Structures are given as C-alpha cells and as structure tokens.
Amino acid sequence: METITLEVKSRSAGISAKDTRRGDLIPCVFYGPKQENKSLEVDYQTFRRIFDKAGGNTVLELDIDGKDKINVLVHDLQHDPVTDKFTHIDFKFVDLNKEVTTEVPLVAIGESKAVRELAGSLQAKEMVTVTCMAKIIPHQIEFDITPLEDFHSSIQVKDLKLPEGVVITEDPDLSIASVLAPRAEEEEAPVEEEGVEGEEGEAAAEGAEGEAKEGGDEKKSEKAE
Predict the structure, then answer these.
(1) Contact between 138 and 168 (Cβ < 8 Å)
(2) Is 93 helix (H, G, I), strand (E, B) or coil?
C-alpha cells in the first residue's frame, strides 16, 4: 500500500475555527476508539492536492507536529455552501490490520454501443460500499461498459472484478450501469382543416337562424289568433 503522508499541526483551543480559516488553514479534528481527541489544522492547498490524489477512501498517515504519525481516513469533510471550499475535516483513526467498511468510487471505462450509435445516455452508480482490511482499500473500482449494446443491457454489482480480499456489501443483482434511450421527439398536434371547420360553423349558424325564424313565425301566428 502506498503511504500518503499529510502534515498537520495542533490547534490551540483558544483559536476559533473561523480565525483558523482566515489564515488559509482548515480546522480539523482527530478521534477514534481508544484514541485521544485532537484539535488540528492543515494548510488548505496541501490538503487539497493530497485529497485530489487520494480521495476520501484512501488511508492517510497524519504527521502531527512532526512527532506523532497516525493512520486515518477522512471520515467527514464539510464545504462552504457558496464557495464549495473545504471548511472542516474529521479524521478517524484506522487500524490497518482490521476490517473497515467504506465507500469506493466506481469508474466506467470503455465505450458503449448504445451510447455511441443509438444516442443513449449512460446511467451509472458513482459509489459502492465495500468491506476489507484498511490497508487494501482500493482507490477506485473500474468496470467496462462495452457490454451495454442496447437499452435493455445492464451491468450489475456481481459483474465487478474486485481485488483479492475486497467484498462488496450491496445486493449482487443491483444495477450499477445501463443506458437510457433518448426522448422521442414530441409529435406535432394535428391541425384541423379550416374548410371543415368553416362548413361546420356555417351549418351551425344556418341552424340557429332557422330556429330563430321558426320562433318568430310562431309568435306572429299566436298574435293573429
């Protein structure tokens, strides 16, 4: 397993998270079973580069103040709702020799005939939950979408090729990828012919005039009596 080290520093209890962020640092905490909780801070750009490379499912080695080295996973990562910048990190202790359950990204590779030739849209699951020893958590799991030749094809959890020692905890028959057919163009509403409408209108008008005339004749007859 590749060791990715992240240098962090202890954060004084008297410094607020808001003040920490002003210094281009991210406030963070470390915790875990039988571990002493620690308030920490990490350089924003340093963490961003490492997180872009490792993701949230890779074990990191925290180097705290250049003294203590602890294996952790990013357990929670908060973002600013407006800027989307990292605002807080939870690091959780992990024992490399014990099983953990975590989410791993799914990455589609290859080319689907249903997408290329039939103009379909690929629908793919982004993450899958696995259980394995912490030291062998895969960075990502790739799967080939070539078998998706039509809109009835699908790739399921049981079709995934996993590294030795990694087990997916989700339903084996769960679909992780399929291709959605393009929307059919809306049919134009049929336009009624003006001639027909005109004839019907004229007929209705003539009928109305006839009824009115008959009514008038009847009234005249009544007066004559």
Answers:
(1) no
(2) strand
Reading the chain (225 residues) residue by residue, the pLDDT tens digits are 677 999 999 998 888 888 999 999 999 999 999 999 999 999 999 999 999 988 888 899 999 999 999 999 999 999 999 999 999 999 999 999 899 999 999 999 999 999 999 999 999 999 999 999 998 999 899 999 999 999 999 999 999 999 999 999 999 999 999 999 998 744 444 555 555 445 555 545 455 555 545 555 544 444 444
User: Phi, psi at residue 207, to the nearest 5°?
Assistant: -60, -40
What span, in angstroms and rounded, lies between the C-alpha atoms of 48 and 50? 6
Instruction: State the alpha helices, DSSP H only, in 93-180.
Output: 113-116
Q: Hey, what domains does the chain have and what are their CATH numbers?
A: 4-94 (2.40.240.10), 101-180 (2.170.120.20)
CB burial string 52-82: b at 16+ within 10 A, e below: eebebbbbbebebeeeeebbbbbbebeeeee
Query: Closest Cα partner for 80 from 123, 36, 121, 27?
Result: 27
Q: What is the token pair recorded at 19?
A: 């003040």
d(CA 72, CA 87) in angstroms, rounded, equals 19
State whether the Cα torsion 85-38-2-99 is positive or negative. Answer: negative
